[in-house]
Amino acid sequence: MSDNEKDRVLETLTKRLGALEADVSRLKAASADIPEDVVTVISAAVAAYLGNDGKVQAIRFAPSENWTRQGRRTLQNHSIR
Asked: How far apart are CA 12 and CA 44, in angstroms?
């Protein structure tokens, strides 16, 4: 590979890296209220389920309180276990 080809590849990669960094900062600003560890866990679950072919495009908290209600039911269950 000649020096000119290396320079072109380096320039292309630098542009791609800049675009990716801009995307990451835009996504972080859009999802500032979701903790990073939650996003990491969701991404890992999607990757494990889809065989690493999936891409997390958006994450939002569900408006439903079903998880909370079910947790309360479990904690307040007085039946003999």
From this structure: 29
CA–CA gap between residue 56 and residue 5 (Å, rounded): 34
- Cα-based torsion angle of the residue sequence 70, 71, 74, 75 in order, rounded to the nearest 10 degrees: -150
Q: Are 59 and 39 in contact (CB under 8 A)?
A: yes
The pTM of this model reads 0.38
Distance CA 46, CA 41 (A): 9
Cα–Cα distance between 11 and 6 in angstroms, integer?
Answer: 8
Per-residue pLDDT tens for 21-70? 888 888 777 766 777 788 788 888 878 877 776 666 777 666 666 777 77
Classified as helix, coil or strand, 17 is helix
Angle in degrees, CA 55, 60, 63, rounded to 5: 145
